[in-house]
Amino acid sequence: MAEETLSNLLQEDRTFPPADEFAAAANGTQELYDQAADSDAFWADQARKYLTWDTDFGEVLDWSEAPVAKWFIGGRLNAAVNCVDRHVEAGNGDRVALHFIGEPGDTRDITYAELHDQVQRAANVLVELGVQTGDRVAIYLPMIPEAVVAMLACARLGAPHSVVFGGFSADALRSRIADGEAKVVVTADGGYRRGKPSALKPAVDDAISGETTIEHVLVIRRTGSEVDWTEGRDHWWHEALEAAEPTHEAESFDSEHPLFILYTSGTTGKPKGILHTTGGYLTQCAYTSHVVHDVHPETDVYWCTADIGWVTGHSYIVYGPMALGATQVMYEGTPDTPHKGRWWEIIADKKVSVFYTAPTAIRACMKWGEEFPNAHDLSSLRLLGSVGEPINPEAWMWYRRVIGGDRTPIVDTWWQTETGAIMASPLPGVTAARPGSTQLAIPGVELDVVDETGKSVPDGSGGYLVIRKPWPAMLRGIWGDLERYKETYWARFPGLYFAGDGAKKDTDGNLWVLGRVDDVMNVSGHRLSTTEIESALVSHPKVAEAAVVGATDAMTGQAVVAFVILRSEAVSEADEKGEGAELVAELRNHVAKEIGPIAKPRQILVVAELPKTRSGKIMRRLLRDVAEKREVGDVTTLADSSVMDLIKTGLDPAG
Ligand code: WTA
Fold it and tell me: Residues in domain AMP-binding enzyme C-terminal (predicted)?
């Protein structure tokens, strides 16, 4: 499949150089590539240019304990002060930090001065609830400004936040709270989703019932829905902030002080708590917001549509743009509520100039039709960005033509939760863009594509995407599991960071990311682990065994397809009552309950056997062939090669 996509991609030779006017005003220039030749000196310059340090650093990079890096040794700073206070001190307190738009249509503009007030009060509230430097705080919220306030209040205290996506289930929240041993959780009564309130507090009550490390719950009132209340444990956010001291003196933390943990799916069932620290992370976020997203804080209105529950929301809603003092849009809801032109209406209304979204959203908008964007004035847009999965050249072309008015550059940015910030992208004022290619490592970063043995492949060939040297925003490990960090990222190719993606270099040296080569799926830009969903399925009393694959899907990039073997009692019951469809619905809901609705399989196929090698390993490649309705590949390594016939015959009658 990868080869097929690739040959299509490699025939893609349209290029789009930036307009002269754009290039002349762009923050990112050709010189950056030259300056980055001495990468330590380069990153030291960026760290001093973009951040305010309370104590300057000495050594730039300490790699003596590789693969755990230390950046900007001895430097001290406060991330929240860098994102808020210093903009107020510089006289920009009246600048809007957030144009918030709720799904029901309520709006709130929050200036940097107001944000400053809120963050200080929230920091004081957390202190009163017993949060100390180093304690973890879980954040489980919809896309509302308080999410940003809560994150920055944690940063201000040096209390690492662990944001859990509001779409995750109570069980997923429970395991993340337990792994990070969070002391406080910040949540809301609910948020608005697809036209109606969607509750959050009940999931928190459930997640912290029984044994838990959580001592207090701060609850933001968003929907006004009834909530259960535990006196002494639960506190209303608005009451607590109102009562709190309005000022809070921020402390400086070491450059390597932990800033946050963010859980992401890996190849095993257990999500990994990716650990990021302060100075290096913030440097690379600010630098990339400036040179890749070309944010000009005085004039731009920037909008990243990601949820703060994902790394894109951390780096490109909170830390990057706010370190620059940018003005941005924050929107609570879905792009099609109450109508399919909602995003474009917001862009026209707020005069958004830089827009950053995901290919899956672009494909959905393509499907809905051009009439929706065409009904709005999108002439304020001057730069578009894409992230989360490979963007098909057709989607890229549509994005540029329909949304960008055939005028705007597009930056296709490759990076990961683990990399913390953008690693590969065109520079919008420099690079002649190629639809579908993420093109080049940004200045200061060294990427490569290697073969099975770790040897660099020549231009025109494919292999595994690796990172050749440490970068400031790199993860500092997996929370509580250093061995797993080494094993996952550094064992495959000694001395190289293995990203888990396949990629190819074209004959011009441009990078084409092809997608994951491990057991991680990418569904609508969300990372899901096959093993995690398999474990969820097997935890259902009627399931004996499960195998999950990511099948290519025109809309979501990949879709979850599950093959399950039922326990014998369940098989006869389903047969007798003719309840096959009901059972499948029950299993899909079970996965939603265990992990979250985003993990629901598109399809669940009940089978009698699964294809296994002689050593008992499930051959997902063959199941993917079935799921993608292809001729089934080589079955010679199967312990029993008739299994695939059995699966196919079993499925055929149903189509
Ligand atoms: C994929 C999201 C192709 C890739 C920031 C990576 C991409 C995973 C791109 C990380 C892109 C991200 N082109 N693939 N521009 N951006 N990916 O951790 O497979 O949620 O490994 O971080 O998304 O997903 P994560």
Answer: 532-617
Whether 266 has a pLDDT exceeding 90, the answer reads no
pLDDT in tens, 331-344: 999 999 999 999 99
Q: Phi-psi bin for 369: left (phi > 0), alpha (psi -120 to 50), beta?
A: left
* Helix 620-627, helix 643-651: angle, nearest 10: 20
Q: Relative to the CA of 513, which ligand 1 atom is closest?
A: 3
Give Cβ neighbours of residue 1 (< 8 Å, ≥ 6 apart).
552, 624, 628
Residue 499 Cα to ligand 1 midpoint, Å, equals 10
Q: How far is the CA of 328 from the centre of ligand 1 (A)?
A: 23
Q: Residue 414 Cα, ligand 1 centroid: separation in angstroms?
A: 6
Check: CB of residue 42 under 8 Å from CB of residue 34: no
Q: Give the integer Cα–Cα distance in Å for 449 and 457.
A: 6
Residue 280 labeled ligand binder: no
Does the pLDDT value for residue 6 go beyond 60?
no
Nearest ligand 1 atom to the CA of 264 is 18
What's the whole-number mean pLDDT along residues 63-89? 98
ipTM of the complex: 1.00
Condensed to tens digits (0 to 9), the pLDDT of residues 612-645 reads: 877 677 888 889 998 988 888 777 767 777 888 8
Best probe residue, ligand 1, of 265, 414, 442, 478 (max atoms within 8 Å of C-beta) = 414
The letter for the amino acid at 372 is F
Q: Three-state secondary structure along 249-303? A: CCCCEECCCEEEEEEECCCCCCCEEEEEECHHHHHHHHHHHHHCCCCCCCCCEEE
Q: In sequence order, what are the beta bridge partners of 448?
A: 466
Average pLDDT of the segment spanning 268-280: 91
Asked if residue 615 belongs to a known ligand binding site, the reply is: no
pLDDT band, very low/low/confident/very high, at 655 (cuts 50, 70, 90): very low
Q: Say how far apart CA 113 and CA 51 lie, in whole Å.
A: 19
Nearest CA to ligand 1 atom 15: 414
**Does 501 count as an annotated binding residue?**
yes
Q: Which residues line ligand 1 (CB under 6 A)?
A: 264, 310-312, 387-390, 412-417, 438, 499-501, 513, 515-516, 522, 527
Most confident of 12-21, 51-60, 519-528: 51-60
Under a CB-based contact definition with an 8 Å cutoff, are residues 129 and 215 in contact?
yes
Please report the atom of ligand 1 found closest to the CA of residue 500: 21
Contact assessment for residue 398 and residue 362, using Cβ atoms and an 8 Å cutoff: yes
Q: How far is the CA of 548 from the centre of ligand 1 (A)?
A: 20
Position 76 scores a pLDDT of: 99
Per-residue pLDDT tens over the stretch 78-129: 999 999 999 999 999 999 999 999 999 999 999 999 999 999 999 999 999 9
Helix axes 568-577, 580-594, angle to 10 degrees: 130
Task: Taking residues 141-165, report their average pLDDT.
Answer: 98
DSSP, collapsed to helix, strand or coil, labels residue 77 as: strand
* CA-based nearest residue to 262, from 425, 353, 151: 151
> CA–CA separation, 523 vs 84, rounded Å?
34
Phi, psi of 189 (to 5 degrees): -60, -35
